[in-house]
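Aminotransferase class I/classII large domain-containing protein
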Amino acid sequence: MAKTNGGVVPSSDRSNLIPFSSRLKEGRALALDVWTIFSAVNLPADCINLGQGYMNFAPPKWVTDAAEAALNTVAPNHYSHPRGRIRLREAIKGFYGPQFNRDLDVESEILVTSGANEGQYSVFTAFLEQGDEVIMFEPFFDQYLPSVTFNGGKPVYVPLHPPKDSLTKPTSDDWTIDIDELRRAITPRAKMIIVNTPHNPVGKVFTKAELKAIAAIAEEFNLLVMADEVYDCLVFDGKEHVRIANLPGMWDRTVTVGSAGKAFAATGWRIGWLIGPKSIIQPTLAASTRIVFCSNSPLQEAAASGLELAREKKFFETQLSEYAERRDILTKAFDDLGLKYTHPEGSYFILLDISQVDFPENYPFPDSVLGRGRDFRACWFIANEIGVSSIPVSEFYCEEHANIGEAYARFAFCKDVDTLRRAAERFQALQIYLK
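Predicted structure tokens:
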């Protein structure tokens, strides 16, 4: 700045007067994120979006009817209790109580949140001190990282080990945990561990044996367990969804995360919930109240209706069958091409091995893709030349382990059957680009 008799004259550049917080950089929040790079505006207009995990079909009509009824009633258009509307808490108790083998207390063991993500964020706010470490299995849901670092936490990464090359038909169960490696990652600063099952993006449904081993470590080192189970309604092939909170001694240290968006094809509603002991829910309520105060009131009523009527309508059984059909459309397309992929036993994502995709190195890639992993270039090439978008999996890893993810692209099958069939037809054009 230049000095004058009148004081300080600011320079002409006023674009960065106030420095931003370092936590934005630590949480990779400032980097051009993968969702922006592979958004519809950057891809061909007719590109089929199998990248982002939102549905292109409506929620069930009986659920949207309940939303409309709530909008036409006075009370649901105003603030709900920060714990959540009582009807939804009662519905969560009725639906999930038997699954936890507990008579859930709607006043102290259930918290409605503004989507599962805000619920998780509030847990971090409530329990992390500066420098506390959070164990995250890789690949990880990308929101975990900024949510941890924004709250003073330090992520510690433990990779799931991908299937052996010798496996020709790997499943998500072939992505394995090295328990000794997990144990070595624990330090005196470890505070929490995140267990995402069914897993995004692998589709892994953690086995009881794996969860028991994780639970033993959590007990030994006194860790809080965040069980991210938002895909609990999408478990295929007769696999058992085991809730880690149900294992001996684990209820007292586990918070389980759920989502109406995933359950009822309503991701934009931003209605989630947490289930756990009072010792976890009450501090989290204190944080959530100051972050959002309360969640969307009329859509809480609709989510309640969904849970209340789900059994009567056999909704989740029917939905699971529909998703299995969608999954099979994509896997058949990959089988026809002779491409290796991870057969998902949960969630609505398929990891395709893209190491055989041979694209020209001089292809006109944008700067946002250059300098990133090979999977970024492969996914960009497939989106532009084949007309189907996906998400490069190295985005879900730390820099040290990103090479593991570079072999894969994540395709979402939470789309209608016609869209998936059109995508399957387009995939056949990939044949000429395979090594």
